[in-house]
Every structure is written in structure tokens, then in C-alpha cells.
Amino acid sequence: MPCPQLTYQRPEDFAPLHAKLKGRENPDQAVESRVRDILADVAQHGDEALARYTSRFDCPDFTASMLRVPAEDIAEARRQVPAEDMAILEEAAANIRLFHESQKEKSWWTTREDGTILGQLVRPVDSVGLYVPGGVGGETPLISSLLMNAIPAQVAGVERIAAVSPPRKDGTLNPYILAAAAMLGIEEIYRVGSAWAIAALAYGTKSIAPVDVLAGPGNIYVTTAKRLLVGQVGIDMIAGPSEIVILADQSAPAAWLAADMLSQAEHDPLAASILVTDSPELARAVEGELESQLERLPRGDIARKALADWGAIVTVPGLKEGIELVNKLAPEHLELAVADGWSILSDIRHAGAIFLGCGCPEPVGDYFAGPNHVLPTMGNARFSSALSVETFTKKSSLIAAPPAYARRHGAKIARLARLEGLEAHARSVECRNE
């Protein structure tokens, strides 16, 4: 049995599944202490600390002089990547840019009859630091993550975008990362990774100027560093392991559903893949397909562990109960593999991204369609949203009140200030009416 078989009939049945998934939240309590030490080390020793950690964990001969990637290396990488691959990257980037252009917010203000002008100014942050994982040995780089983080920042109007990624053993970065950066016009790239890279972007070093917002996925060290630096810098979100929930009825092909579950399970041993269905026959068929497909999957060992520890096939009496369970799970990715997904879409309240129909698997959104794949996990879709252009903007309130406003409302404002024991606040208004 690749993953546990469960049933859900009423809200009380959610507790066991919820308790099971909560175990993914913090698998190693010792990490925070180590990350705090790393942050302090980089804050004190800067480039020297970056070179020390990088030579220890990534590239034995690394020195601080190797941190920044030269412009000629970036240009050369674009020439190394096959033209057909560059064409795919360019098309994906165009789709992502088009989608995020629709998210741009405008500044606004209103004028009242008394001459008061009130409004909101929307402006981009000055600088953003992007973390780009290099993958296994630097050979499976998360190119899509660079696109998904950099393009919304560019659409927002951010002037400075710096990217960091851990070097390979020979001190280079994968050419696909550099080629994607070149395509986007990103010139500031550093060969450094893990928590020390996050610290450098937050605090700044001799080689790396500090940024205002940090974004991009990473392992538990990267995620913990971002969490500890909230307040020092802005961050995109605290993301946990990847997850997918599929709500399916008997119309869905079992082989497709199993493939979709495995698409998340292969990410990480902590990834969660959950099928919710009102068809016991489909549940059994998917179980068989999972076993069969696992045997042929290159990352089968990872996927098998993820399914065994965090996966589930949940049988429900009907789609009504299935929707109820989906909303309680509030998943990162939700596939509606039912005959008429549009008819139930309005009932789905909590999900990071919704994929409608059996013909629209999660990787369509991960890589190509345009919506962002940086999504809330661990049930945070109840109150959080996908990374967007808004992640890289800030909003200032605008208040322009004529002198008559203080004369008309000064006594009321002063009264409210004195109720809070703030006499200077009251006098600040009253002195304008003397």
C-alpha cells in the first residue's frame, strides 16, 4: 500500500488527518539555533564568513573574490543553452509577465467637499534579493523559481534585483540559471547559498548590498533564516513542504491522478499528496497505479517515503463532504478532477492555486501558464495568497487636509488624544486654532 487509506464523513473525522499533517511543520528543532549562529556570523564577518561556509559546503576552493558572477559569464551561459530551450524559457516568461501585468495596482486619491485629499500611493520597494536553489549538485536548478520571483518584481517596478544561488563543486553556477537571468536582464548574481546567503542579502556585506525584500524557495535553513529576519527585511512568505490535494469523481482517469500525486511526492520526503474521492473504485485503481508508476520513477524512493508518511487516499460519501474536507485542508495546490469543476468552484474557499479539470495538471501552473507557483502551504491558504506583484510593493497613505479641517475638527481630535493620555497630540492640533 503506497499510502494510507482514510475515510471522511463528518467534520470530526478531520482531526486525525490534521494531526498527521501537522508533523511536517518543524522536523528539526535544532535548525533554528544553528541558523541564528550563521546569521550572527555573517553579520559580524561578512564576506569572510560567506567564503568560509561556501568552501566548507559547496566549493572547496572558494574565495570571497568569487562571490559575484562576472557579466561575461552570464552572457556566455546564454550562448551555452540550446536555442530550443531558450525559446521555451522565453515563452514561459512571456506568459508569466502577461499574467502579472494584470495585478498592478494604481495609486489613487479622492477629494472631499471640504478640500481634504485622501488616498494611497503604491510604489515598488527599492531592492529585492532572490534565492534560487541549485538542486542536486547544482545540476537540477530551479529555473522556474527565478522566473516566478523575478518577473513580478520587475512588473512592480523594482529597480535592483539581486539573485543568489549555491555554486557547484567547481565554483560555477548552472548555465540555465545564468541564461534565464540574462534573458530577464538581471546582472547582479552571486555564487552563495543556504542561510548565509539569506543573511548576506539582509545585512549586507562588502560584496553584497542589503535588500528590502527577500523571496524564493529553499531548504529548512533558508526558510528558517527568512523567518528569523522578518522585521529586518520583508519576505515573500514562510513556505513549508509542497502539497497537492486532488478532489476527484469516477470520471477521472486513475493513471492521471496517480501521476499528479507523484508530481508532488517526488519533490521532498515531506511533501504531501492527498486524493479525496467519492468513488471507492477509483480509490482502489489509483492505489494500484501509484504502485505501478513508483517502480518506473527516477525519484521513486523519495516519492515512496513522502506517500507513506504524508500521503493519503481519502474516501468521502459525496462531493459535498469532499469540498468540506478540501476547505479544511486549505492546500497549496488543488486539482478539481471532476466532471463539472465549474459547478463547484464557488464552494472552494481555501486553496493557493486551483487547477480545473482533468486536463489541467499542476505542472501546467508550476512552469508555464503564467500564475505564480510560489503559494501558501501548511493550510495557510486560509489567510494567505500566492506571491504577486503586491509582494514587491508598499503603500503609503496620503492625507492633505486644509487649515480649515483642523479648525473644524480640532476639538474632537484633541478629545480623542486626551482619552489616550497623549497631551502633546492634543496640543499639536489645538495650537493651529489659537
SSE blueprint:
Layout: E1 5-7, H1 14-22, H2 30-45, H3 47-57, H4 71-80, H5 83-101, E2 108-111, E3 117-124, E4 127-131, H6 143-156, E5 160-165, H7 175-184, E6 188-191, H8 194-203, E7 213-215, H9 220-228, E8 234-235, E9 243-248, H10 254-265, E10 272-277, H11 280-294, H12 300-310, E11 312-315, H13 319-329, E12 333-337, E13 353-356, H14 362-367, E14 393-400, H15 403-419, H16 423-430
Parallel strand pairs: 1-11, 4-5, 4-7, 5-6, 7-8, 9-10, 9-12, 10-11, 12-13
Antiparallel strand pairs: 2-3, 3-14
Helix pairs in contact: 2-3, 2-8, 2-9, 4-7, 5-6, 5-7, 6-7, 8-9, 10-11, 15-16
Shape: globular
- What portion of residues belong to β-strands? 15-25%
CATH class of the largest domain, named Alpha Beta
CATH superfamily of the largest domain: Nitrogenase molybdenum iron protein domain
What gyration radius follows from the Cα positions, in whole Å? 25 Å
Quaternary organisation: single chain
The name CATH uses for the topology of the largest domain is Rossmann fold
Description of the molecule:
This protein is of the alpha/beta class and 434 residues long. It has three domains: 5-25 and 240-370, Nitrogenase molybdenum iron protein domain (Rossmann fold, 3-Layer(aba) Sandwich); 30-102 and 125-235, Nitrogenase molybdenum iron protein domain (Rossmann fold), CATH 3.40.50.1980; 402-433, no CATH class. 43% of the residues lie in helices and 16% in strands. The protein has a six-stranded parallel sheet with strand order 1-11-10-9-12-13, sandwiched between helices. It has a five-stranded parallel sheet with strand order 6-5-4-7-8, sandwiched between helices. β2 and β3 (117-124) form a beta hairpin. α2 (30-45) crosses α9, α6 packs parallel to α7 and α10 (254-265) crosses α11. The model has no long low-confidence stretch (mean pLDDT 95).
